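[Meeting: bench + compute handoff]

Bench side (C.D.) handed over the final construct sequence. Compute side (W.E.) agreed to return the predicted structure before the next meeting so the bench team could plan truncations. Sequence as handed over:
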Amino acid sequence: MSDPIAPLVTALHGEGRLRLWSLVITAFGDLVQHRGGEISTARLKLLMGRIGVEQGTLRTALSRLGQDGWVSSTRQGRLSLYRLTPEGLEKFGPATTRIYAPPRAGAVDLWRLSVVPQLGGAAQIALTPADGPAPEAALSVVGALESLTPEWRAGLISEAHHAALLALERDLDSLARAPEPDPLGAAAARMLLIHRWRRIVLRYPEYPPEILPQGTPLPDARARVAQAYARLAAPAEAWLDSSADGLPAMPGPSGDVAQRFRSTDGA
């Protein structure tokens, strides 16, 4: 039987040199923080081994994260346990709300037009919903939107943003076609899905479908990610609950994981 998450793993390793330290941070945010915030090296090895990462490469990534102040480690018997440092939590925390925000339920009434400084003294014009996350801007104006020219729409999505959405679309299509993976596979797939989504959300503006240029991949990206996440959530949590390969089960989940990609009223 073919591996249900093989296309995601192939895509990950086919994109050039893997920044494993960044993937480990994704694992903490998605699989560890709601489970007491601590994970053993042994469980991390199983998780990363499921996607073809060698143990030596993982040790190097953890060492780098420790040197850079992202993680700290302790010993518990024969287990080495890692957790995000207060500094690591401070860096990662603000991104969580943006990553797991629910899909928009209706059309946008008010918009924010922002002048966002870029490296080298340049500036970028960003158009975002007024009730959504605000970019760090030098100037912002909020108001109703009368119309957008085709030229303006065409300039909303850069080539890099378009390519990132296409890659996410391929991952989502692969997950939709594949049978449900085993619990460890589900945890790995959920991590890879959120890792790709995290990079898109934190790097590019998120536009509602009504203003996107024609032909933009995944105009409903957040809704599609939420759907795939919901499918992977239960088996992934089952792996965290399990005593896999003799490892102790992780602490039970906190309530916030059930609210990921869901509105505060539970819709």
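W.E. noted at the follow-up: The chain has a mean pLDDT of 90. C.D. will use this when planning the next construct.
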